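Reopening this ticket.

The earlier resolution said the output was attached, but the attachment link was broken on my side. Pasting everything inline this time so it's all in one place.
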Amino acid sequence: MKNSSFFLILLSLLLCCTTSISYGASDNQTGAATTGSDAQTIQLMSSPELSSLTGNWAQEYGRLNPTVKITMGNLDDVQGVNTLSFNSNDQSKAVNDGKGWKMIVGRDAIVAVINAKNPMLKEIHVQGIQAEEFALLLSDPGRRNWKSILKGGENTPIHTYIIDNAKVIESIGSFTNLAPTGLNGITIASSQEIISTVQQDVYAIGFCKLTDARDATTNEMVENIQILPIDKNRNGRIDNFEDIYSNMAAFTRGVWIGKYPTALCGSIYATSSTQPTDQNTIAFLTWVITDGQKFLNNYGYSVLASREVKSSIVSLIPNTILAENEQKAFISNTWIVNIIILLIVGLIVVAMIRYIKKHKLTEPNEEIELTPALNENTILAPKGIYFDKTHTWAFMETDGNVKVGIDDFIQHITGTLTRITMKAVGESVRKGEKIISIIHDGKQLNIYAPISGTILENNKALLSDASLMNTSPFSEGWVYLIEPKNWAREMQFLFMGTTYKEWLNDEFTRLKDFFADSVRSNTAVYAHIILQDGGELTDNVLADMGPEVWEDFQSKFIDTSK
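Inline output:
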């Protein structure tokens, strides 16, 4: 996190330097120009629901940069060409019509809210409600009762209320696979009215934006209102890694790292009729997507991932080079200064490396620079292969015997395997018992059998080259050939195709949650390697962890999947 912040600061400094060269001397820390009052002014507009957040940004930035004047207005006001607006994606034509310029600056969420005095509140928090149950609730008036969507629920009618907001209606339709016209809830015009209605009706469910249900004073849910838990992985219960509903901070963090359904997540944007070229505006936007992100959670929004921040900064910086009236002067006068800047940066980096080496943190940080990201798109899932929750695969050969191995997910987590221990030919195995130990530099994980049967053959090539499980997990890296015992029954618990991909998405969420909560030692290094810098994971994430982390991963991640 510190390294990323350091490089963002360097980018901002570079931005400031190029600004002062392009427009003349600068007398403030953001590089604001001094060529006239217009160049010192930033014109901001805001949709109503973002007015407080925008005002807070303007106030704080103005405090840090007193020479920059910021004017505020509403979207209904007449806007100039250089006006910068902050909008939610259901409010702005600039966002929806594809014209002009826009940049994401934060995340929003659509929520289902219930009365905190609902007599079935305990069952609701244990079971949650699945997307299919929401669809049933909103499409079939005859099944609109708590008993139909909740095990042990009372046979009492549910009154469903939906705020009259195009984005909310569209998101609910996407989440439930229903056409917006097929949503049969009672439409309510204002956010205050929908919250008031749910507060008074203990059996009601209301659909609105998260900010509609937030108390601005306490930054928690308004009195007598709770967010209805969603059973995202559709297994009939709210698992520990899905439980993000205890308070506002836990929920917004859960949205940030992917624990909440994507269809119910939205964005807030900075928009303008043209891409900003004014240096003060660019400096302000850079601050909004870096230091200004800390204000988002105070208003019920979630911060951007680091990859989004870096991408946005890159898209903004070229504008400092394209100042129309100063482009030639910039090209002729700044190359020497840029060389000086690079030399200064180099000296700072050398100093940092020496500091890190002194504190014995060099090697993990070098890995950070070289290790690619790990996400759902990097995992191989060949068609026709069954997958198990133990992160193993099974494939029936033409003779009826079944080959098994570990999946691509687990080998990406461990890094290159150096040794394995296998069972002998002729041994019987049962589904869910230890079938192989995979080892990386003395640290090991036990992997469990996806099926029951008798081992007919083991892959002896793995004894001399365990890395075949990394390079070819589905071909040369197979582990056993098994004569199955209960294939017809056990295959019903295996995944294939789209179902495996959907389950894998939840596994990545669970993985992020494990690292966020379990890695405690050497946190200065581990936190940066794993996900604290914007919710991203790195490939081979366990490789450089200590044995205590591997043991924790075994008990809290692998063993709980059996």
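Reporter confirms the inline version is readable. DSSP finds 21 helices and 22 strands in the chain. The CA atoms of residues 391 and 407 lie 5 Å apart.
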